[in-house]
Amino acid sequence: MRPYKGVSAAERMAQRRAAIMEAAWDLLGTEGWQAATVRGISSRAGLNDRYFYESFTDLGALLLAVVDDQAARGITAILEVARSAPRHLRTRTQVVVTAIFDFLAEDPRRAQVMAREFPASPLLQSRKHEIVQAVMEIFIAQVHELLDEVPLSPEDLRLTALTITAGIWETITLWLRGDLDTSRDHLIDYIVALLMATTALPPALNAQLP
């Protein structure tokens, strides 16, 4: 197919897909996904709804694509901050936790989606588990990088990473919904302190219970 106004067919298709993704993200983060229709999202993107199906099989596929895009952006932001921070446990922990809150604040739609849309959608709940797993792997990698000797067994390190990651997700979700009466700064400090406290786990795990 010949280019149209110097733009190839593949480029035009990519532009239409990006427009639909942005329209869907805006809807998800403002009105909520319960308002989603193929025609409504296509109209919001300035496109005929027939173009929807050249990139997405249905609304569920679009929802996952939009969330995956935001999750990838968040993970990239975390990794970039971690790589640029000093190789010092508390310093890196502080900047990474702060970066998570900065990422959510950068686009208010992210907070809305995390607080309201994830808990309400079985499809997003399933995807949440995959995101938690991805962040968990970052946690484990950072532990190995920052500590010359990891004091936990591989099994206990994974249990710790899962407990911390899933717990932080739920805590931030409750805070974003207004269900936790605490400030942003205090919550960041608390999460940092909690993460630092995991270094005290080995003695507790090895202790003989009476």
Automatic annotation (TrEMBL):
The keyword Cell membrane does not apply. Pfam families: TetR_N. GO terms for molecular function: DNA-binding transcription factor activity; transcription cis-regulatory region binding. InterPro entries: Homeodomain-like_sf, HTH-type_TetR-like_transc_reg, HTH_TetR, Tet_transcr_reg_TetR-rel_C_sf. Keywords: DNA-binding. Coiled coil: none annotated. This is DNA-binding transcriptional regulator, AcrR family. Residues 37-56 bind DNA. Residues 14-74 form the HTH tetR-type domain. It comes from Thermomonospora echinospora. It comes from the Bacteria. The keyword DNA-binding applies.
